[in-house]
Design goal:
The structure holds 2 protein chains of 2 kinds. By secondary structure, chain A is an alpha+beta fold. Helices cover 29% and strands 39% of the residues of chain A. In chain A, β3 and β4 form a beta hairpin. In chain A, α1 packs across α2. Chain B has one domain: Winged helix-like DNA-binding domain superfamily/Winged helix DNA-binding domain (Arc Repressor Mutant, subunit A). Chain B contains 6 helices and 2 strands; from the N terminus they run ααααββαα. In chain B, a hairpin with a 2-residue loop joins β1 and β2. Chain B is globular. Classes of the chains: A alpha+beta, B mainly alpha. Chains A and B meet through β1 and α4 of A and β1, α5 and α6 of B.
């Protein structure tokens, strides 16, 4: 058995702008709880998600990159020993354009039933996607949530 | 946004979302087993939920798996819940859950 989440959002933008927002650290900081990611975004290149204080939150590798359509990340938590022990998850971004609206589908899965990592990211993805949508459509990100 | 409110304005559809919230990625057959209605009715409700983007689907071989997609609900919450209110509302929500818990 595996754990999987699927998220879909529709954004009034272009595939290229969405790709740029997903892959550039300056954009990410605006909608991703002030975190950013480091990678050259090519198949085989390393990938890291960083807290604003420089600690590594998650790390892995780019498995597939087909800009601006498809990105697959091999993803493991690095800062929480229990989540890290669950091993590798797989996160897939798919970008499709349909009549001026771009559909972003995010699939995050791990080969483990009731995985804590997937539960942990499940709380974050909807907030990140709402903020990303607002940012791309209005130029202003949503305020960061109060912890 | 109209589609989201319309989709949510039905007890059976909210129950389907509850079933997916309890266990994500179920097939039509699995959902039918838990619902007291015809397969055709379940299928129709799922189509309305999918149209409103509250349910997203993925093909897994011959089977179609249904996933709860909470993003539109989060969009609605973000629209009216101000940045200053959120912490307090969460505290109120936690209090309500604690008080209403049966055990």
């Amino acid at each position: 058995m595996s754990s999987q989440y699927l998220y879909v959002t529709y954004i009034r933008t272009t595939p290229q702008k969405l790709w740029d927002a997903l892959t550039s650290p300056e954009f990410q900081r605006k909608y991703w709880f002030n975190m950013h990611q480091e990678s050259s975004w090519k198949a085989g290149s390393p990938w890291k998600m960083m807290f604003s204080d420089g600690r590594v939150a998650d790390a892995g590798e780019i498995l597939e990159a087909d800009p601006p359509r498809r990105l697959v990340i091999k993803w493991r938590n690095e800062f929480n020993p229990e989540l890290k022990a669950e091993g590798w998850s797989r996160c897939v971004y798919e970008i499709e354009e349909d009549a001026g609206v771009v559909k972003l589908t995010i699939t995050h899965a791990i080969e483990k039933e009731k995985a804590k990592l997937i539960e942990a990211v499940a709380g974050g993805w909807p907030k990140i996607l709402s903020s990303l949508k607002t940012y791309l459509e209005t130029g202003t990100p949503l305020p960061r949530p109060i912890a | 946004m109209d589609a989201v409110f319309k989709a949510l304005a039905d007890g059976s559809r909210r129950e389907l979302l509850d079933r997916l919230h309890a266990r994500n990625g179920q097939t039509l057959n699995e959902l039918c087993e838990q619902m007291d209605m015809t397969r055709q009715a379940v299928s129709k409700h799922l189509a309305i939920l999918e149209e409103a983007n509250l349910v997203a689907t993925a093909r897994n071989g011959r089977e179609k798996a249904h996933y709860l997609n909470p993003v539109p609900i989060n969009d609605i919450a973000e629209r009216w819940i101000g940045k200053y209110e959120r912490g307090r509302l969460k505290a109120l929500g936690d209090l309500k859950r604690n008080l209403e818990r049966e055990d």
